[in-house]
FAD-dependent oxidoreductase (Psychrobacter namhaensis), 410 residues
Amino acid sequence: MSAENLSATSATSTENGVVIIGAGLAGWHVIDAIRAKDADIPITLITADSGDRYHKPMLTMAISQNKRASDLVRATGSDAAKTAQVTLLANTHVLDIDPVSQTVQCATTEQTESPTVVSYEKMVLAMGAHPIFPKSLPEDLVWHVNHIERFGQLQEKLATGSQHVAIVGAGMVGTEIAEDLLKAGHRVTLIDLNDAPLSQMLPAKATARIAQAVKSQGIQFLGGYQVSEVTRSSDSGNEGKLQVSYEPIGSTDSCTDLQSGTLLVDHVIASTGLTVDDKLPTAAGVEFDRRTGIVVDAPTLRTNTDNIYAIGDCMSINGVACRYVAPLRAQAATIADDILGHEHGGYDHKPPMIRLKNKAISVMATGVPRSEGNWQVTSESADELVMELLDDNHKVSATVTIKAPPTPKA
């Protein structure tokens, strides 16, 4: 353990304040919200990384802008902790949570002595979610861009010149990364189980336009396929390259005779969804849904375990995972007020506007869109499509607006 962490540990042993697990946007937003209202309450931030502050959504558009990982860091973890008067336990893993004694056991990767024990009066779980790697996508061969460190490593590899990148998963993130890599001069193949990008979120009439726009950019889209294997090429002439084997999952609307195939690429990126590790919530006795994450009370963001809250990617409200940046400030403000005992009106959960960052097409959705359901067209033209999702009571529960980009002036 470093000298910095030793001094931080000794401080936490005598202070029962707020412990925050996770130093992503959610964790730092909670710190900002608490410090805006109380400059003195002890706060300990425990994170498995350096705790640096950066804006994660920038990761899907930074390569084409030639921004390195260091360019995205707004403040190092140590500097941000000093500014906020926070005890930072960086590069530290939480081993266990005891909700009865209200203690956390944690250790650094180099720590050989007994685990450090940190006491808390209130705890906030802001540990985020991590990428899902199906068995066909081995983690030692496949990249993800869910964290700035991995992003930085991938960017170094891509800096050597134009390369061929396969992206597995054509949701919001996969589709945005595909355009970013294309703009940076790389050849891109986007592979998805569905016929079109964003097919788990939007109806086929809408996604068909997105697929057309993606293909018009020069991105190769393989829809209706699953990746069966990723291996290093055994061909001496293709040293360092990866072989991606894919096969059809069944007939699709656009093609009924899909054939299995292989791609030879330089890199593979997984964009196959996120999941929340249940180890810490289970240890803390926190109600947990394997599909959506930690269950919280919507107005307070409290879990069912006394004195423990959750925020951001790791938690869900009313059975829906909350994996968007826009609501974080309001969520953090509610948690801060609740922790400090201030009167507050409660968190009013409203799904944010969802925007696809893609220059070839404008996609904006509201509510909680999903592919199935009673979608109705409200207006349709060559340049624009507007649809509404009606619930069982014929009320609008989601909308989507898709527009072609404006024609450049001559």
